[in-house]
């Protein structure tokens, strides 16, 4: 099992690395990046469900349930945002007159 301070250090390092990587992605690549992040959110959801399944006490079950609910909301929200971004790139059917 990972010690608390080591887990906190890994979490902070992952957050800093994620922020630096995302901030350097060009705007044109945000839609494919959102699709990839939706895939990761699905893995997080499966991990939360596994953690909820292994929970023994009521506190662990509540935390596991919150994890599943937040992960599901994050995955659904990611797909909604991706759909809205893809709608922006569709042709509206109106062409400008020359």
- SS elements, strand count: 0
Shape: flat
Largest sheet: none
Rg of Cα set: 19 Å
* Low-pLDDT segments, ≥5 res: none
What's the SSE pattern? HHH
Distance between the termini: 68 Å
How large is the share of residues in beta strands? under 5%
Whole-number mean pLDDT: 84
Which structural class do the helices and strands define? mainly alpha
User: What proportion of the residues is helical, as a percent range?
Assistant: over 70%
Instruction: Tell me the number of helical segments per DSSP (H or I, 4 or more residues long).
Output: 3
Explain this structure:
The protein is mainly alpha-helical and 98 residues long. The protein is built from 3 helices and no strands. The longest helix has 32 residues, at 58-89. The radius of gyration is 19 Å and the shape is flat. It starts with a helix and ends in a 9-residue tail after the last helix. The model has no long low-confidence stretch (mean pLDDT 84).
